[in-house]
Amino acid sequence: MSERDKNSRPSGDKKPFKNGGKPRFKKGGRPDGRRDTRPRDARPMDSRPRDSRPGKDIPLTSAQMTRQLAASAVRNVRIDGLPLETVLSALPGYNELDPRDRAFVRLIAATTFRRDGQLKAVFKPLIRKEPPAFIRAALETAAAQILFLGTPPHAAVGETVGMLKSTKATRGFANLANAVLRKVVEEGSKLAGMEAPRANIPGWIRGAWERSYGRAAVRKSSLQLIKDPPLDLTLKDSTDDNTKKWAETLGAAVIMPGTVRLSSIGNVAELEGYTAGDWWAQDVAATLPVRALETALGDLAGKTALDLCAAPGGKTMQLAAQGAKVTAVDKSESRLARVHENMARVKLDAEIICADALEWETDKTFDVVLLDAPCTATGTFRRHPDVLHNRTPKTLSQLVKLQDKLLPKAASLVAPGGYLVFATCSLQPEEGEPRIAKFLENAPEFRRIPGLALPGLDAPDIVNENGSLRTLPYYLEEEGGMDGFFISVMQRKEKE
Ligand SMILES: C[S@@+](CC[C@H](N)C(=O)[O-])C[C@H]1O[C@@H](n2cnc3c(N)ncnc32)[C@H](O)[C@@H]1O
To answer: In testing the pocket of ligand 1, which one of 306, 309, 341, 353 has its CB within 8 Å of the most ligand atoms?
Structure first.
């Protein structure tokens, strides 16, 4: 064993997973004993189970590697509470895979999250003692391939068992995995079929949705979770003629003027119009905050607009395409890099500022302030099923507190007579109406603009009893659904 391997092996513990698969060094510490001071999402994530012993490992084949990466991704999303994309790109080996293998790893992990409740139901009668988290993830990802992705069972079982055998720390679970996965091949379809798709939504989230939107709405929405999501494109020129032209060019459906839909995501950068900057990818629901503003104002051309929390820039592009003079603020430098890229590609201008919105100071006020607030993003589960598994009631309450601070700050930057839009891509009721009610209690200079019509969108019940817009994932059901969004438009009095 090399010096490095000796150092990375936690001392005094010879049995694999004695502690349930948790890292054997102190939380926040590193195997060499020094404290890792980097932020959690900046630390490298190991694709191996954390207490594996590299010196004894057998090299993985590429097929085994894809299974190991998928299982590691599922485990790490659950344990570290980070987005799947962040976890994947931090896994050693992932970025070096060819694009097809990368897509397969992502598909396996996403399908595991989409089918969470059904997979739990499959394993319940098959596993007596809960295995460590990585082993559990390896079993679930293998079952997702067998039951939902059409992978030949012998390949899914063989590669998973081979992958477990290759590492000393997981070798002891290879026989168990082999036996359990063979049962999955025999009985899995029946067991999965007995569980309703709504069980794929974690209980605490499902309960909140059912209380707010009713059981039927949640059942219908859960059917969107198990489907491949479509791809919506927002057109820079949103006229009817241009919308029809792009629908024909791309073989897409018209969802509303300015939005066309392709039935699957594919490689966006290869589509006609991407390089020329004629459109950008954006779910139709995410376009509604700016469309609601347009309805309230009539015309955005020449108005000053502040897009607070702007990255990656979907709404900045919309505002600029409508002729507004846009200032875009976000605190994430890496996400703002995407705003710069996007604005350059679509050939639109905005002043782009990297700052914490709560601390950012300016003498200016704006005709329009759009606060697309940081939120749990549970409304985006069609494209990001991991959001249902890396959020907790604690993260929800932290985000609500942040929203309660950001709203008055955004309001302070609205000119007299100007408009304030609050939006979240969340289905959690706490991240919608109660935030507006709380804000308005202390801001009598603002009033709601209720019941905004959205021309051309064929989704009923979009305006709630308070006049806010609330979209649910099963709207546009036949066409592939839409993200869950909450949107409220308010206006500041001319004189106070
Ligand atoms: C929902 S996303 C915004 C999506 C964006 N409006 C769009 O349409 O593409 C929320 C953004 O808020 C940013 N953010 C979170 N807290 C912030 C803060 N205190 N100040 C500024 N930006 C913040 C995050 O970096 C993230 O980019």
So the answer is: 309
What pTM was computed for the model? Answer: 0.87
* Contact between 411 and 447 (Cβ < 8 Å): no
pLDDT of the residue at 15: 37
Ligand 1 centre to CA of 426 (Å) is: 14
Instruction: Please give the full DSSP string across 174-217, using - where no structure is assigned.
Output: HHHHHHHHHHHHHHHHHHHHTS-GGGGS-HHHHHHHHHHH-HHH
CA 424 to chain centroid, in Å, comes to: 13
Vertex 47 angle, CA 41 and 49, to 5°? 105
Which ligand 1 atom is the nearest neighbour of the CA of 406? 19
Domain 3-195, CATH homologous superfamily name and number: NusB-like (1.10.940.10)
Report which of residues 430 and 478 the model is more confident about. 430
332 CA to centre of ligand 1 in angstroms: 8
- Nearest atom of ligand 1 to the alpha carbon of 313: 9
Helix 433-441 and helix 393-412: axis angle, to 10°?
Answer: 40
pLDDT digits (tens, 9 = 90+) for 57-89: 788 999 999 999 999 999 999 999 999 999 999
The set of protein residues with a Cβ atom below 6 angstroms from ligand 1 is: 286, 309-315, 329-332, 335, 356-358, 372, 374, 425
Query: Distance from the CA of 352 to the center of ligand 1, in angstroms?
Result: 13
Task: For residue 383, report the distance from its CA to the centre of ligand 1, in Å.
Answer: 18
Least confident of 42-56, 179-193, 403-417: 42-56
State the ipTM, two decimals. 0.99
Residue intervals in the chain for CATH 1.10.940.10? 3-195
> What residue spans in the chain does CATH classification 3.40.50.150 cover?
283-492
Question: Which fold does the domain 283-492 belong to in CATH?
Answer: Rossmann fold (3.40.50)
